[in-house]
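Re: beginner question about structure tokens

> Can someone show what the tokenized structure looks like for a real chain? I only ever see the sequence side.

Sure, here's an example I had lying around. Input first:
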Amino acid sequence: DEPDEPFQFGTDKETNALTILSRPIKTPLDEFLQQLLTAELNIMSGRGALLANGEQNEAFNKALLIYGEAVACRESGNCSGETATSSINYETKALRSTDTKLLTSFNGSGGI
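And the corresponding structure tokens:
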């Protein structure tokens, strides 16, 4: 069962995505969401992880996004059937997490 989608773009998808990417980072969750959206855009544009033959590594790319979206769901309290944690709790969890570093490394190489 896949996690709930953390990005709710509404009808103006491009503007809302640009807002996520350009807003000032005030919390570790803001940074994580920016990196997750960047990873999704890298994969969608064909700059995801590649196999030795140059083709997209769809299994790795999908696993990375499923994992990242589950973290975003948990950290933002947007998982169905769960209640949001206090801001102190999720700020502390995000600060101690290596999840953002994983996405930053993936994005820093252009996803490849």
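Each token stands for a local structural state, so reading them left to right follows the chain. The longest helix spans residues 58-76.
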